[in-house]
Amino acid sequence: MSEALREYELVFMPSRNWAAKTRVNYRNDIADLIRFLEKRGKTDPNRVDLQDLEAYMAELDRRGYTGTTRRRKTSSSPSLAFSSSTDTSPTMWPRG
Hints:
This protein has helices at 2-12, 20-39, 50-62, 67-75, 77-83. By secondary structure, it is mainly α.
């Protein structure tokens, strides 16, 4: 997973016209998701499934994040899947 994060930072993020603060926030959001997934035993981003993503959304809710913050924290995550896979199908996030 750390390799996917590095690739996200070095390849995907520079291809976007994001402000520096946005890049920092997205990097932190992805790192948080990776820590959560690794605690669940997921080490390959291509093996993350809908149940994992729903559990992460529930965790964000338990932490007391607002809907706006949860959406921001999850909006960058599908691009992590794109940056670490040759599969072109987007990760589907549950709404919440």
